[in-house]
Write a structure and sequence with these properties.
This is TIGR03086 family protein. The protein is mainly alpha-helical and about 190 residues long. About 55% of the residues lie in helices and about 5% in strands.
Length: about 190
Amino acid sequence: MSDTQLTARAATPLLEIIRNIKPDQLDAPTPCAEYDVRRLLNHLLFWGPSLEGAARKETVPPPAESDSAVDLTGGDWAADVETQLNRIVDAWSKPRAWAGTTHMGGPTELPAALVGGMVLSELVVHGWDLAKATGQHLVVADDVAGEVHKEVTKTATLGREMGAYGPEVPVPASSSTVDRVLGLTGRDPAWTP
């Protein structure tokens, strides 16, 4: 399975979760302490163009200094998130997206494969966040989960230094691959609202 196919397969469960979020769930807490459901959807919309641009080797700065400075969830937020995720999948479905270097909204040049791995991780981890917050269950294919685990293992320390991940949550080695990913990102797989 190539990275280009994994992106679409990582996005599919997230899209299903988003389609099933009810408007009265937008204020529900998520496993990301700083985000409720609305703010997490806003986060996906905020960073989506930058992640899409990274695949095309275009620097697309986010619309503000932080995702808390804008609210992009007005109107038909579900359709907007779905459209943005489909654009990300389309952009990362091209083999050239994974080659060479790129930028993720800022001036720092990064290996494109590293950014692509971060995109896979975002799709799966935030899919889980939204699923847990809204009483749904995220189903991730084994090969997708394995690839995300490999990527998060490589970037966990950097993610914690950047504040993207919390302190590692110990998870038994016998746990599912997704649960081990969650622990690496600072999430408790047993989290409940």
